[in-house]
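Ticket #4471: structure output looks truncated?

Reporter: J.K.
Steps to reproduce: submitted the chain below (108 residues) through the standard prediction queue, then opened the result file.
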Amino acid sequence: MRKYRKETIKIVDSVRCDRCGREDSDQMEMQEYLTVDFIGGYNSVFGDMEKYTGDFCQRCVKTMMGDYLTKVEEVYCEQDNVEFLLQVNEKTKNIKSGRLSFGCQRGD
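Returned output as attached by the reporter:
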């Protein structure tokens, strides 16, 4: 016999960019958002043990950081203590091996 229990889960319905205010509910757009979430360490300019978070659309990330980012051939993602290594075929832009999990991003 199987016993079941009910659980309530939260599902992200939309994301709003904390820079430009753009709001997206399309899954393809939402997966391109960059979420910054950190706690300032000792002697941090942000303050010791101060927590910060922000969501930024891909357009704002490109505007703010595009000149400082370097395109790489491999994509590494660590999520929920599971590591993923994806090999991207540059000609076809297809993932050759591995899985892409929500939260991992592959830049083109």
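Triage note (M.O.): checked the attachment and the full token line is present. The radius of gyration is 17 Å.
Status: closed, working as intended.
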